[in-house]
Each structure stands twice: as structure tokens, then as C-alpha cells.
Design brief:
Blueprint: E1 4-13, H1 20-38, E2 42-50, H2 54-63, H3 67-84, E3 91-94, H4 98-113, E4 117-127, E5 132-134, E6 139-140, E7 143-144, E8 151-161, H5 167-176, E9 181-182, H6 184-193, E10 201-202, E11 204-206, E12 215-216, E13 219-224, H7 226-231, H8 233-236, H9 243-248, E14 253-257, H10 261-275, E15 283-286, E16 289-291, E17 294-295, H11 306-313, H12 315-325, E18 332-333, H13 336-366, H14 378-399, H15 403-424, H16 426-429, H17 436-457, H18 462-471
The structure holds 5'-O-[(L-methionyl)-sulphamoyl]adenosine.
Residues 10-13, 21-22, 24-25, 50, 230-231, 233, 256-257, 259-260, 288-289, 295-296 line the site of 5'-O-[(L-methionyl)-sulphamoyl]adenosine.
């Protein structure tokens, strides 16, 4: 029976164009969605844009245009990049859409009528950049830290969500569900933060200060706090209250990076709990890309444009690099030298070369027709053993959203297959008339190995998988589930005629220098 699988990315602010950080979480989610579809799961992959709030209002003001126009002009940049990156999302939310706004208002009405939202006067320090009140505890040497931007004193009447009511429940929930927040270091951070009393969450902004938001259904003088609005996308888009919602909720994964763990682990979970809804199965927060140890920022001028990278190196190399190098539990330095190293060694030398020389040899020695297998030799058995182990490890890692580790296991098979070619030296066998059956056998096993590899790399490198199946003249391979098993099925029959070989990843030099 097929399973139902629901995965989300953060919805990105439209205050600026997408960069490699946004692209990375989206690629990780895409790989997972493709993997689940390949296994036959009924999959729903949601991504989109967070269009309300101060950041967006300010970005529009800077450009001297209305916020809606600003959003309408920014959204295509994200959509075009996802197309270029072969992102296979099933829906794309923009929080200015009525289908989302209606549900935000519905959830607010529900919580308000339950008494989970109340109004109170509040005086305090307010950071315009962080869009929140901050406390004097966050001061160092009498000053608020620079990342909070301008901090002003403000007195306001606002609506608050009784988040504090859920603190004891939340601690207990995290303790009882070890894999709910992953990785473990992030889970511990959340538990640490919950040692202090949880304050109620201010969920409104007076229209006089911020007009760009969803009006509160019970007080038209206020708009909804952008985080309350944004988080609801995870239930509004599958159609909160509908049959479809009942089918897909709870989500299997909310994929995010560590910067937005608090809103997800604390605000969102308590909002859901107050609404009487089940928790998402896992909140998975990966690390950041750093640039010479600093976080990417416009002022540092280290923003990597994914579109340029794709144009220079191809979409699958970018997807491969993101999956292979970005880490779950810690940060990773991004460098184009590292990118080129990975490209040339993993993709050009190891993988591309294996496929290219294997197909070329079948053409050279057997007219492009897959020969029959003869008696097995030790190296054949070892190749198959590694393939079986690879498939088992691959599924285990993919299910845990560890695409880097899944790729590592695939590359163990790639290396073994390259060694298999070198050990058996088909070019020598071809010269020895006594070795004809052995040559058949080696070429047969190489064919099956390429077919297995094509299905295994498909979620990470869909375009490459299609190229390989095209060169093998066997597009049907991609449908193969390749389940973990003691013996892998041979996917291409003897007598099958292959297509023509063409290099998959021609070696790259740094195009900026050339
Ligand atoms: N709009 C909120 C999210 C609301 S979700 C209900 C937001 N948007 S954002 O545009 O700032 O995107 C933050 C996310 O972008 C991170 O959590 C991560 O997924 C991705 N990244 C942004 N910079 C990144 C890096 N330097 N490295 C890796 N991913 C990063 O927060």
C-alpha cells in the first residue's frame, strides 16, 4: 500500500531575490519528494513565499511601489529559479492569496473564541529589523546588538496568544519524541530555551505601524503578526478542514535551517496544540552555508547566485553539491573551488567516466548490444555485493533525509565499478579470443550497474538520470523502485541495444578565471 508523504520548505521572504541558502533547503526537499514518489508514495511537496510583514513593506517602500506590486514582481524570480533547478513542488503558496488569508483568519477566530488570544497593553523595546519586542537582557554594554537594527521604545495595545499555557506540554512532548526535532543539537537548544518561562506571543500589529498584513478578524485596527500568518501556510494550502487535509496532515517533514527553529519548534507547535491538531512528524533544521566563516549577506557581498552557478556548471552539479556538502548538524563553508573539486573528481572522473567508458566499450566490442552473462567470477560477486549494500544504505539514508550520506553510499558503488573495469580490463579481454565469454559477462554486469546507478541518482540528479537512461536506450529504468534486497534485479535484458554515449560531466575549469 502506498504511503502518504507531505514535505514543506520555509516560505521565503520576498524582500530580496533568492540565493543559494533558499535554493539549498528547496533542493533537499525536492530530493526527498522525488525519492518518495519513486517509491510509490502519494506525495505532497509544498514551497512558496512569505509576502507580508515589515521586511516586505520596507522593501516595497524603498522601491517606491505598493507592496502587492513588489510581491508580484519578486515572485517570478523564485518561480523561475525553482524551474531552472528542476524543483518538482506540487503547490506554491503566496501568503497574499485568498485561499491562505481565509484560513489564517479562520484559525485566529477559532483561537480567539476559545479564549486562547487576549488583548493587553505592552510597553517595551521594539526592533524594527527583527519585527519584535526585545528585552533588556539582549543588551550588551547598554546597547542592543547590531543584528536587531534600530531599537525604539514603544507602548502598544496588542493581541497575545497564550503560548505560556503550553510550555509544560511542549517540554514533555519533546522529551517523549526523540526524533521530533532533528538533529539532536537543535533539539537540545530548544529544550534549553524552554527552561526559562515561555512568554505569551504577540500576534498582532497595529495598522498604524504596519498595514501590510492580514487583518485580524475580530479587530480591524490590527493586522496579523507575520510569523503567525506564515506558519499557517502548512495547513492552509492542504485545505485545513477538508478531506485532503485529513489525508495529508500531519506533515512528515518541515525542512528549515537553524535560524528559524524557534518559530517552528515553539510558536507553531503551541499554535497547533491550541487548535487541537496533531504535531508535524519531524522538524528538521539543517546548518548554514557560510562564506569564509561568515553568514551570507548583501553587505558582505558574498551572496551566491544559484542561477549563475547553474549556467556555468549545469543544474545537476549544483543539486549534487548542495546535497553532498551542506550539513545537517553544523555549518559548511561554501567555496567555488570546493565546488569545482567535487565536480571534477566525483562527477567528471568517477561517475561520468564510468558511464561513458562502459557504454563506449559495449559499442566498440559488442556493437552496442548487451551480451549474455557467463559464469560468475569473484569480482562479479563482489561488485554485486557492494551494489546490494549500497542500495540498503541508500534507502536508510534517504529515509532519514541524509542525502549527503546517501550519495556517499552511491559513490562507493561508483568506485567499486571503476575498480571492476580496471581489474577486468575489457580492452585486454577483447584481444584474447579465449576471453570472449568473460568479456560478455563484464559488459553485462556493467550495464546492470549503470541502470542501478541511474535509478539511485535520479532524485538528486534527475536530468543526469534521464541522460543515462537515454544513452542506455532504456527510459523504463527510472520507474524501477530498486528495493533493498539480497539480490538486485537485472534491469536491462541481454540483446537490448544501447543508445550512443556522450560525456555527462565534461571537466570544468574556473570560468571566472578562463
Ligand atoms: N519567511 C521566513 C520563513 C517562514 S516559514 C513559515 C524566513 N524566510 S527567509 O527568506 O529568511 O528564509 C530562511 C530560510 O532560508 C532558512 O531557514 C533556510 O531554509 C534558507 N537559508 C537562508 N540562508 C541560508 C544559508 N546561509 N544557508 C542555508 N540555508 C539558508 O525566514
Amino acid at each position: 500500500m502506498s504511503k502518504v508523504f507531505y514535505i514543506t520548505t520555509p516560505i521565503y521572504y520576498v524582500n530580496d531575490r533568492p540565493h543559494i541558502g533558499h535554493a539549498s533547503t528547496t533542493v533537499w526537499a525536492d530530493v526527498q519528494a522525488r525519492y518518495r514518489r519513486q517509491r510509490g508514495d502519494k506525495t505532497f511537496f509544498l514551497t512558496g513565499l512569505d509576502e507580508h510583514g515589515t521586511k516586505v513593506q520596507q522593501a516595497a517602500q524603498k522601491r517606491g511601489i505598493p507592496p502587492q506590486q513588489h510581491c508580484d514582481e519578486m515572485a517570478p524570480h523564485f518561480q523561475a529559479l525553482w524551474k531552472k533547478l528542476n524543483i518538482s513542488h506540487d503547490d506554491f503558496v503566496r501568503t497574499t492569496e485568498p485561499r491562505h488569508k481565509n484560513i489564517v483568519q479562520e484559525t485566529l477566530t477559532q483561537l480567539h473564541s476559545k479564549g486562547a488570544i487576549y488583548k493587553k497593553k505592552y510597553k517595551g523595546w521594539y526592533s524594527r529589523t527583527a519585527e519584535q519586542f526585545v528585552t533588556e537582557k539582549e543588551m550588551v554594554d547598554g546597547k542592543f546588538s547590531a543584528h536587531l537594527g534600530e531599537v525604539i521604545e514603544l507602548e502598544e495595545e496588542n493581541y497575545f496568544f497564550r503560548m505560556s499555557d503550553h510550555q509544560a506540554w511542549l517540554i514533555d512532548y519533546i522529551q517523549k519524541h526523540e526524533d521530533w526535532i532533528r538533529p539532536a543539537n537543535r533539539r537540545n537548544e530548544v529544550l534549553g530555551a524552554l527552561q526559562k518561562p515561555l512568554e505569551d506571543l504577540c500576534i498582532s500589529r497595529p495598522k498604524a505601524r504596519l498595514s501590510w498584513g492580514i487583518p485580524l478578524p475580530f479587530d480591524s485596527e490590527y493586522v496579523t503578526y507575520v510569523w503567525f500568518d506564515a506558519l499557517v501556510n502548512y495547513i492552509s494550502i492542504p485545505g485545513y478542514g477538508s478531506e485532503r487535509f485529513a489525508e495529508f496532515w500531519p506533515a512528515d517533514y518541515h525542512l528549515i535551517a537553524k535560524d528559524i527553529l524557534t518559530p517552528h519548534a515553539i510558536y507553531w507547535s503551541t499554535m497547533l496544540h491550541a487548535l487541537g491538531l496533531p504535531m508535524p512528524k519531524c522538524i528538521l533544521a539543517h546548518g548554514w552555508w557560510l562564506f569564509n566563516q561568515a553568514k551570507m549577506s548583501k553587505t558582505l557581498g558574498n551572496v551566491v547566485n544559484p542561477s549563475d552557478l547553474i549556467e556555468r556548471h549545469g543544474v545537476d552539479a549544483v543539486r549534487y553539491f548542495i546535497c553532498r556538502e551542506l550539513l545537517l548538524a553544523s555549518d559548511t563553508d561554501f567555496s567555488e573551488e570546493r565546488f569545482l573539486q567535487r565536480f571534477n573528481s566525483d562527477l567528471a572522473n568517477d561517475f561520468g567516466n564510468l558511464v561513458n567508458r562502459s557504454i563506449s566499450m559495449i559499442h566498440r566490442y559488442r556493437g552496442g548490444v548487451v551480451p549474455a552473462m557467463g559464469l560468475p567470477a569473484a569480482s562479479d560477486e563482489d561488485l554485486k555485493k557492494i551494489a546490494v549494500a549500497t542500495v540498503a544504505a541508500y534507502h536508510k539514508e534517504m529515509e532519514a533525509v541524509s542525502c549527503g550520506a546517501a550519495l556517499e553510499s552511491i559513490w562507493r558503488l561508483v568506485s567499486r565499478a571503476n575498480r571492476y573495469v580496471d581489474e577486468n580490463a575489457p580492452w585486454k579481454l577483447a584481444k584474447d579470443p579465449q576471453a570472449s565469454e568473460r568479456l560478455d559477462t563484464v559488459l553485462y554486469h556493467l550495464t546492470q550497474t549503470m541502470a542501478w546507478l541511474a535509478t539511485l541518482v535520479a532524485p538528486v540528479m534527475p536530468e543526469t538520470a534521464t541522460k543515462i537512461t537515454g544513452q542506455l536506450n532504456a527510459p523504463f529504468i527510472i520507474e524501477s523502485k530498486l528495493e533493498p534486497a539480497a539480490t538486485l534485479p537485472d534491469l536491462i535484458p541481454t540483446g537490448h541495444t544501447l543508445g550512443q554515449p556522450a560525456p555527462l560531466f565534461p571537466r570544468q575549469t574556473d570560468s571566472k578565471q578562463s
